[in-house]
Amino acid sequence: MENSKIVEDVLSSIERNDFAKAESYISKDMKVTGVVPQPLGADEFIGTMKALVAGIPNWKFNYRIGSESKNIVETKLRITGTHTREIPSPMPGVKNIAATNKTISMPEEKVTFTLNNNKIVNLKVEKVEGGGIPGLFKLLGVELPMEVHH
Questions:
Q1: Which band of pLDDT confidence, cut at 50, 70 and 90, is reported for residue 54?
Q2: How far apart are CA 79 and CA 70, in angstroms?
């Protein structure tokens, strides 16, 4: 399967709350960088996404595939949704986030996926003002714990 199709499958599977399918394309040693201050591993990334989709059931990445070369797929995405349900503790040090009914519209972010043997091994999010997990939590009025800020 071509790499851009794998990336599309992962993003659309997360939107549909089909984490078994999404995880089938994610390397166990995947690293996620740029979206939070410290890199996330595969399990932390999946756990965070499950929590966010639980609380924001109409979560959309609004992605478009940009360039693809060898094992690198570049995308642009802009997360939208409505926070209608409680978000179960999305990461260590962050309590459950009660529903705010806020409409979420994040800035566009460039996300680069690196694949190896049909699995995502690296997901790098370009830092954008108001983007990433810190930007999302700020929109929801949630303070990040200090250890997440470093």
A1: very high
A2: 27
Express each pLDDT in 8-25 by its tens digit: 999 999 999 999 999 999
Which range of residues forms the domain containing residue 29? Answer: 3-138
For residue 29, the domain's CATH number is: 3.10.450.50
Amino acid at 13: S
In a domain, 149, yes or no: no
The pTM of the full predicted model, rounded to 2 decimals, is 0.91
Alpha helices in the chain (DSSP H): 3-15, 19-24, 42-55, 132-140, 146-149
Among 77, 47, 75, which residue's Cα sits nearest to residue 59? Answer: 77
**Number of domains into which the chain is organized:** 1
Which tokens sit at 84? 């209608």
As a whole number of angstroms, the distance between CA 112 and CA 7 comes to 10
Mention every residue, 6+ apart, whose C-beta is less than 8 A from residue 96: 86, 87, 88, 89
Whether 98 maps to a domain, the answer reads yes
Q: How far apart are CA 2 and CA 7, in angstroms?
A: 9
Instruction: Report if residue 33 sits inside a domain.
Output: yes
